[in-house]
Amino acid sequence: MNHSTLIPTSSPHHLPLPPLHSTAPTRNAAFTEKFSIEGRNLSYSIHTGQRKYVPIIRDCSLRIPSGQFWMLLGPNGCGKSTLLKILAGLLKPTGGFVHAKTPKSFVFQNPDHQVVMPTVEADVAFGLGKFNLTQDEIKSRVAKALDVVGMLEYLQRPVQTLSGGQKQRVAIAGALVEACKVLLLDELTTFLDESDQIGVINAVKNSLENSKDVTALWVTHRLEELEYADGAIYMEDGRVVMHGDASSIMDFISVRQKSYIDQINS
Questions:
Q1: What CATH number labels 52-108+117-265?
Q2: Which domain of life is it from (predicted)?
């Protein structure tokens, strides 16, 4: 696969957020600059309680180039969300190697699981309490992050008055305000209407265009969202079946679907 064809465009519309801290160089600096997310031969099994292990992830390998927006697709139950949680560090693989640049942030399917403060401004600022920032610095960072996701005008709005898609965009701003380098997004548009769906996708794309340091991996079951991606990964039965540019993945899935329909009708 030629990664050089998957370079996103830049946008001059937003000022980048300054880094919260510097990262010391490592012996793997060249490797980590090229790929923000990598998994090698990852496996994950659950114990049934009857001395049996059920494999959920089977020998999965993937690479996501830095600064790009990739999507992870596959049938229900194929292991997409489990793989994403392994990459986020929320689950420990039973085998293989995983690397993701830090800081990284996992955005849940249900925004109510992480949008918890009474107002938009307070929620986005919540994670900055662990940093030694002045109030002016906090306000500036919050405003810039909300501007990137198109939610600046909602700064003082009570969170409970927002739509599901708007809450998702606030959650993304909460990750960006902490200088997140990797966004891991779990089926954010499952329960959204078309307007909210496009708003959340654009929020992610603007985040990447605003900063070359941000990389995103988006789990979805909506094939139409592939047109927004730089690349994609297709899974079946806990395995990565194909990994490449979005148009090739779309063609592959279309052939897969036609073959399945033909089998049913034969």
A1: 3.40.50.300
A2: Eukaryota
Give domain limits for the chain: 52-108+117-265
For the segment 62-91, the average pLDDT, to the nearest whole number, is: 95
The number of C-alpha atoms within 13 Å of 32 and in the hemisphere containing its C-beta is 16
CA distances from 99 to 28, 42, 127 (A): 11, 11, 23
Q: How many CB atoms lie within 10 A of CB 246?
A: 20
Q: Give the dihedral of Cα atoms 226, 230, 234, 235; nearest 10 deg.
A: -110
At 193-241, the pLDDT tens digits run: 888 999 999 999 989 988 888 999 999 988 899 999 999 999 999 999 9
Q: 3-class secondary structure for 1-49?
A: CCHHHCCCCCCCCCCCCCCCCCCCCCCCHHHHHHEEEEEEEEEEEEECC
Tokens encoding 36: 């923000």
pLDDT, tens digit (0-9, with 9 covering 90-100), for 155-206: 999 999 999 999 999 999 999 999 899 999 999 988 888 889 999 999 999 8
